[in-house]
Known about the structure:
CATH superfamily of the domain at 76-257: MetI-like
Order of helices and strands: HHHHHHHHHHHH
Structural class: mainly alpha
CATH architecture of the domain at 76-257: Orthogonal Bundle
Strand content: under 5%
Shape: globular
Number of strands: 0
Mean pLDDT: 85
Radius of gyration: 23 Å
Amino acid sequence: xxxxxxxxxxxxxxxxxxxxxxxxFCAIIGPLALPAxxxxxxxxxxxxxxxxxxxxxxxxxxxxxxxxxEGAQISLLVGISGALISFFVGTTYGLIAGYAxxxxxxxxxxxxxxxxxxxxxxxxxxxxxxxxxxxxQWLAGHGWTRLIDYSKILILILSLGLIEWLTMARIVRGxxxxxxxxxxxxxxxxxxxxxxxxxxxxxxPNLVGxxxxxxxxxxPAVILDESFLSFLGLGIQxxxxxxxxxxxxxxxxxxxxxxxxxxxxxxxxxxxATLLALNFLGDALRDVLDPRTRQSRGV
Length: 299
């Protein structure tokens, strides 16, 4: 509670939380509150922003505000889910590597370095092309037919989460190397506690601050990766929308003769505001949860 009070006193953190809260609330409620006709194909193509359509309309006459809110659902879902996968995999891997030490640590970290050297785009393309049909068959076989159209989104979440964990593992491993030589760990070993209890009851609680900070910063990284892939046409495909696919659609209709600027500006503004709020929130969390940062800044 004390950390929450300190965080709420920080004006930047408070503003970031309000912005994020508004984006999440609008993403959940907006598509339900807006009339269904805004999502339908109409003849009202490339209408500029107006009272009826605050963000204008797109090539198919759909309301851009509706599409931006719809895209926020997928982008935030991919970002949060991918970051959580990164959190669990990276934290577990880093804990084991740092605590084991010796040859096991060296082998595990060399594996991380090898994975770092492989381009992300190639890995994601391999995941999508290799597993898309299998995921669809598995979903159909288990009666989850409604999720078949979302198979690429599921693969994208898993692949991004399984790529972003590398930095998390390195950070956690470095913290564990520093903590495992402390007296409280030696005392736990002397009392005969198992390795699993030492990891979960003594080391992990001391890593919560660092892990939460990096988790907050991982979400925008995953959102950016998804947006970049969708912008290239490798991620979310029409008629579904994400911020990246909306930016791609907007870039395609920008030309010197007629500039339909609203198709590019509004998705970019909403996406930028969300990413900035997440990054500022991560910095504020670091100030609150890391005592060394507060001391260096004189807080």
